[in-house]
């Protein structure tokens, strides 16, 4: 087997697929895509619900259909794919160690590497719910895989913790399959998912969503028997006297996603403490030249369409990198999150690109706010440009354009802040 | 006079609207911040439609299930009924994406189509 490549992509989900196709369109020749599962598409094949592709294809598709479009194209342009192949190490000089049943241990050398490993779900351990340890506690995504791919029903009477999109989608899915979803609990005073999912997954089936509520205890012998739920105060602490017991045999957790960056850290790449993904420039290139990252391994996205868009940025960037005709700014511009901004990606801007008009910045807010201005502020506190938004919420990623004309040579920092309009 | 509460999902603002109606006819809609809300509220009030996505059992496939969807949206009130109907269906592998699994679901004129490819294998992956 060939062991030297121009580009190795780690992960065959929507991010990795988009990188492969776009890199090929940008004349990158030898591409290898490594996927640890039996199938390409990442999490998409189990996301059987509708709502994918509205931005990218301008039509509404299910997860498997959305993935299918890219997988078909990939076959057409003959990109090398190795499935059921697990990457176990990446070095800073872009050597990759991977294993699979056919080839055994593989030592691969690449000129460019793209990290597209995605994310995984936070578990009960990560949020430390007290109580006993019976069967019947699942992350929402695991339950989704059981029901939609493997054909098992995880339980009959369900309480969902967390109003993230996967939690709400699974509340509907389990209801359709005959389970009774007794409540969805959200510790925050607002939903962390899309409104569309609140309406079509919960309201459509009269599933109660309780804000400012959490599970304080899970009880059961072999199987979950009941949970204790309580209202929480401003500091997210349970308020004594508000406890209530709900009998159930299943608890689904939808309490957040964490980018899967063990390989990234082992390569010595620094992570952003907020995104938990690598710190990147506008090409989504990490601190190590030629190692890029995109998709949920970089920061958790709410739409697969945005992941595809980011993958395409990287596909083009890899093309430029391999051609070797990039021009660095005399100093990078660092981008900092200000008032009510949790994070901004990219974290810095490194290149001078002739003909570039604007750079799209992606960010997530900390709390919902209405009628706001998003201000882009320079080192001296001057507002470079501002964008009005009717509403911002943590459930929906916000993006703004940074016009190239504002980037003069002396500019060192930009802070993005949200202000009441 | 009847009152219905509807949340507009046409944009992230999610206006909470109140629809007043008499004998099934809308008399007023309030709470929308833009005209899109009216259109949405009218559709939701008169005939709420949804795409149903679920799975169907596959015989002799590399996976035990294939994901499916209704090709067009169907009335919201038929969702659970459709699930009962779909639970009875079995399909033989191979299944092709876009393949019609069932015509005229519940007499709606809408067909159920596969949303993924399932190859045929001799033994089931998960057995
Ligand atoms: S009524 Fe207009 S502003 Fe309100 S949620 Fe609908 S589309 Fe948005």
From TrEMBL, chain A:
The keyword Ion transport does not apply. The keyword Transport does not apply. InterPro entries: FAD/NAD-bd_sf, FAD/NAD-binding_dom, Metab_Enz_Cyan_OpOx_G3PDH. One of its GO terms (molecular function) is oxidoreductase activity. Residues 5-301 form the FAD/NAD(P)-binding domain. Pfam families: Pyr_redox_2. Keywords: Oxidoreductase. SUPFAM superfamilies: FAD/NAD(P)-binding domain. This is Pyridine nucleotide-disulfide oxidoreductase. It comes from Candidatus Sediminicultor quintus.
UniProtKB/TrEMBL annotation, chain B:
InterPro entries: CPE0013-like_sf (IPR036593), DUF1667 (IPR012460). This is Molybdopterin oxidoreductase. Transmembrane segments: none annotated. It holds the Pfam family DUF1667.
């Amino acid at each position: 087997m060939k062991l030297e490549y121009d580009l190795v992509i780690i992960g065959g989900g929507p991010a990795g697929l988009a990188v492969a196709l776009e890199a090929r369109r940008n004349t990158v020749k030898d591409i290898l895509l490594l996927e640890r599962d039996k199938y390409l598409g990442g999490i998409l094949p189990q996301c059987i619900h509708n709502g994918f592709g509205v931005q990218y294809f301008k039509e509404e598709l299910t997860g498997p259909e959305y993935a299918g479009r890219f997988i078909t194209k990939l076959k057409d342009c003959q990109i090398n794919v190795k499935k059921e192949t697990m990457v176990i190490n990446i070095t800073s000089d872009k050597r990759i160690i991977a294993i699979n049943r056919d080839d055994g241990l593989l030592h691969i050398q690449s000129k460019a590497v793209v990290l597209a490993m995605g994310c995984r779900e936070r578990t009960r351990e990560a949020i430390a719910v007290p109580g006993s340890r019976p069967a019947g506690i699942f992350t929402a995504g695991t339950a989704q895989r059981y029901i939609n791919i493997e054909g098992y029903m995880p339980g009959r009477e369900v309480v969902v913790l967390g109003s993230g999109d996967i939690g709400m989608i699974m509340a509907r899915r389990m209801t359709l399959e005959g389970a009774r979803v007794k409540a969805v609990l959200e510790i925050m005073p607002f939903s962390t998912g899309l409104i569309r999912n609140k309406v079509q997954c919960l309201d459509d089936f009269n599933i109660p969503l309780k804000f400012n509520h959490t599970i304080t205890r899970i009880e059961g012998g072999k199987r979950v028997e009941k949970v204790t739920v309580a209202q929480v105060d401003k500091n997210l602490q349970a308020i004594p006297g508000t406890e209530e017991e709900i009998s159930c045999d299943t608890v689904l957790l939808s309490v957040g996603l964490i980018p899967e960056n063990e390989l990234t850290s082992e390569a010595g790449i620094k992570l952003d403490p907020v995104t938990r993904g690598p710190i990147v420039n506008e090409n989504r290139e990490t601190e190590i030249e030629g190692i890029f990252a995109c998709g949920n391994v970089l920061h958790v996205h709410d739409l697969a369409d945005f992941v595809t868009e980011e993958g395409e940025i990287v596909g083009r960037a890899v093309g430029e990198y391999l051609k070797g005709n990039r021009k660095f700014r005399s100093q990078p511009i660092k981008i900092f999150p200000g008032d009510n901004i949790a994070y901004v990606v990219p974290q810095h801007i490194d290149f001078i690109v002739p003909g570039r008009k604007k750079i799209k910045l992606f960010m997530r807010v900390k709390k919902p706010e209405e009628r706001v201005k998003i201000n882009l502020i320079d080192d001296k506190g001057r507002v470079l440009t501002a964008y009005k938004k009717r509403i911002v919420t943590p459930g929906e990623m916000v993006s703004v354009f940074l016009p190239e004309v504002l980037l003069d040579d002396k500019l060192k920092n930009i802070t993005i802040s949200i202000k009441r309009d | 006079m009847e009152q219905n509460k509807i949340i507009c999902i046409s944009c992230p603002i999610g206006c909470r609207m109140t629809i007043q109606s008499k004998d099934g006819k809308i008399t007023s809609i309030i709470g929308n911040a833009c005209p899109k809300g009216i259109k949405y509220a009218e559709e939701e009030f008169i005939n709420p439609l949804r795409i149903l996505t679920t799975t169907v059992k596959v015989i002799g496939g590399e996976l035990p299930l294939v994901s499916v969807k209704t090709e067009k949206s169907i009335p919201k009130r038929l969702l659970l009924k459709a699930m009962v109907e779909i639970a009875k269906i079995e399909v033989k592998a191979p299944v092709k994406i876009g393949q019609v699994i069932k015509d005229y679901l519940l007499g709606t004129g809408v067909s159920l189509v596969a949303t993924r490819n399932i190859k045929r294998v001799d033994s089931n992956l998960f057995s």
